[in-house]
Amino acid sequence: MTVPTYEQRPSHDYPAPRVPAHRTRRTGRRVLAASVASVAFVAVVAAAGAGGYLGGRDIAQASVPAASAAVPATSAGAVNAPAILAKIEPSIVTVRTRLVGVNALMEPVAEQGTGTGFVIGADGLIATNNHVVEGAQTITVTLRSGRTLTAKVLRSDPAADLAVLRVDATNLPVATLGDSSTLRVGDPVIAIGNALALPGGPTVTEGIVSALDRTVQTDAGARLKHVIQTDAAINPGNSGGPLVDASGRIVGINTAAAGDAQNIGFSIAINGARTTIDDLLR
After folding, report:
1. Sequence-ordered list of residues with C-beta below 8 angstroms from that of 169, at least 6 positions apart, any chain
2. DSSP code per residue over 160-191
3. Mind giving me the DSSP string for 233-280?
4. Domains in the chain: boundaries
5. Residue 102, SS3?
6. What is 30-64+78-89+176-281's CATH topology?
7. What sign does the CA torsion over 231, 233, 235, 239 have?
8. Residue 177 and residue 120: Cα distance in Å, rounded?
9. Which tens digit of pLDDT belongs to each residue from 78-94?
10. Which residues in 186-222 belong to E strands, given as ranges?
């Protein structure tokens, strides 16, 4: 299989690095990296009070039970990636989209896209990036069990690059959300997602928190603020997937990577995403 590359040219208009977002689109056999359409400010603050879906009663009922065992560390405090994956993977989904685009001759062509998401509500609520589903005419979600469901966009915020999908299902395994405000540079993290839409399940990459509170410029000219930088590999198709800490809790939503560098990826901090999703669902 030929894996195409994508080029990112530097810009002198903005001080922040320019990065492509990561929805994998296929037209025929080509795999293209799509761009964030309108990404702006995401506030990194904890969800306060009990009024929001993620901040209050609903998430407490739907989440993994508090009695579940913590992820054990391996020798010398190294990350136990298999144990983390076993805890978080049941809540991760594949998001596939279909839409009609245009080619270089402005002729209509069918396009397919692949991204990632994770369950935030046992009653069928799924979080992902807005650019994964933006403009899609049909959306399907495949659960880890292999079950495929039709999804619709319940709410979205292009400025925050976040979307909430709904599928007709109940008793879904809900991801455990962490607290991104406790992250420190050097903390180990794992990124999980459908990189390049490769068959056989999600791709898992390991790294550290490389920096916090970054501001980056996307290749569509939008700005992302207060994001987590990581050296865990993030590739087209990873968009909307989780960045997970050593305890198996989601601390970020993988969104973009620097196209002119190596091992520089960016994730929306989960505290800011939690607040935005709360606002959307409220």
Report:
1. 123, 124, 143, 147, 149
2. TTEEEEEES--SPPPPPB--GGG--TT-EEEE
3. ---TT-TTPEEEETTS-EEEEEEEE-TTSSS-EEEEEHHHHHHHHHHH
4. 30-64+78-89+176-281, 90-167
5. strand
6. Thrombin, subunit H (2.40.10)
7. negative
8. 9
9. 778 899 999 999 999 99
10. 188-193, 203-218
Q: Which amino acid is at 79?
A: V
Q: What is the pTM of this model?
A: 0.75
Give how far Cα 61 sits from Cα of 174, 203, 268, Å. 10, 29, 25
Which sequence positions are flagged as catalytic? 131, 161, 239
User: In CATH, what is the architecture of 90-167?
Assistant: Beta Barrel (2.40)
Contact in structure between 35 and 259 (CB atoms under 8 Å)? no
CA–CA separation, 2 and 46 (whole Å): 42
Q: Of 22, 61, 62, 59, which Cα lies nearest the Cα of 39?
A: 22
Q: In this structure, which amino acid lies at residue 251? A: V
Q: Say which residue, 17 or 43, is predicted with more confidence.
A: 17
Burial of 173 (0-12, 13-18, 19+ CB in 10 A): buried
Tokens describing residue 214: 């970054």
pLDDT at 79: 79
Token pair, residue 72, equals: 């054990």
How far is it, in rounded angstroms, from Cα 48 to Cα 76? 36
